[in-house]
Amino acid sequence: MLERIRDLSDVPVLILTAHGNEADKVRGLHNGADDYLTKPFSNRELAARLEALLRRPRTGQPEVEVYDDGSLQVNLGSREVSVDGAPVELTPTEFRLLAALIRHPGQTLTPDQLLKIAWNDPLGIGPDRVKFGIMRLRRKLGRDSAGAGLGSSIQAVRGFGYRYVAPAATK
């Protein structure tokens, strides 16, 4: 959950919890928390930590990222997708899957990586989700039964995973 917050915002994050062992603290900080406070704590300590977080300079709003390879246009800020100028309606999971692929152009991402990014499934409980997610995404991007269309730019790399290759590079 915290990774998704970090993808969308630069808001300060303070974890308040009763879990005080070192492994929990390290996991929380590595996942993007700015500070970690365990029970019991005083109101003064909480206020001081919040003030310190708010004093830290923030990077501000990230620039809107737009991917355009001539056929596929993806506005990562507004979550709009179009193929050859025609809008394509994607579910949030399909959008995260496509965004993961275009953010790593030509790089093969494993099903485990895609599960973690698009479904937040770090345990890999549902590896078939990736296969069916790719199939639905290809269909929505215009892959026909003969394999033509933009959906064919999402390539399966047998035994490894999937990658997005821009149409100009596939010719």
Structural class determined from secondary elements: alpha+beta
Q: What is the beta-strand fraction?
A: 15-25%
Main β-sheet: number of strands, strand sense, barrel status? 4 strands, antiparallel
The total count of strands amounts to 8
- Could you report the average pLDDT, rounded to the nearest whole number? 81
Multimeric organization:
single chain
Strand order, sheet with most strands: 3-4-5-6
List the SSEs and their pairings.
Layout: H1 2-8, E1 14-17, H2 22-30, E2 35-38, H3 43-55, E3 66-68, E4 72-75, E5 80-83, E6 86-88, H4 92-103, H5 111-119, H6 128-141, E7 154-157, E8 161-164, H7 167-170
Parallel strand pairs: 1-2
Antiparallel strand pairs: 3-4, 4-5, 5-6, 7-8
Structure description:
- Helix 4 (92-103) crosses helix 5.
- The model has no long low-confidence stretch (mean pLDDT 81).
- This protein is of the alpha+beta class and 171 residues long.
- It is built from seven helices and eight strands, in the order αβαβαββββαααββα.
- The longest helix has 14 residues, at 128-141.
- The chain has a four-stranded antiparallel sheet, with helices on one face. It has a two-stranded parallel ribbon with strand order 1-2. The protein has a two-stranded antiparallel ribbon with strand order 7-8.
- The chain is elongated, with a radius of gyration of 20 Å.
